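Morning. Coffee machine broken again, so started the prediction first thing and wrote up yesterday's gels while waiting. Chain of 175 residues, entered below exactly as on the submission form.
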Amino acid sequence: MRARIVYESMFGNTRAIAEAIADGLRDRGEVDVLDVVTAAEVPDAPVDLLVVGGPTHAFGLSRPRTRGDAATKTDSPVSVDFGMREWLDGVSMPPRGTRAAAFGTKAATPRWLPGSAARGVGRRLRRSGYELADAPVDFFVGGLEGPLVAGEVERARAWGRRLAQQESARLSPRQ
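Came back before lunch.
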């Protein structure tokens, strides 16, 4: 199985989740992990599974304004003008049978806080022609900047393993 993970991260939390998912996927195949800016610069490669995720900003995917706000709170480089929303707008129609999965990070409290980057990513992937391999998944951070809530890295790794098992079983008749 060949997989690619594309993520957007402001404070490193979403990147850590992407890496943990990749660890789980590597049990069954090759995995590329790319931040969204790099993904926009490299050519599309044929993959069996595309995994895409970003942080929840203002109830959904980040926008230039919310990325600008995040940039003032971190020393990490943040692309203000280009993020997951813009990358997904440019995603081309996948080859038949290519599946995708969506994830996001969001504040753990208050739990009632609506919105999810994961759900937004999932909707956009389906509109682009992908079949989702699983329901979009949110991983939780303590507050707006993190750190990740205890156990979330392990949960992401387990989700990656589950995706790898499902996709390997689905693809094995073709191989």
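The longest strand covers residues 99-107. Going to sketch it on the whiteboard this afternoon.
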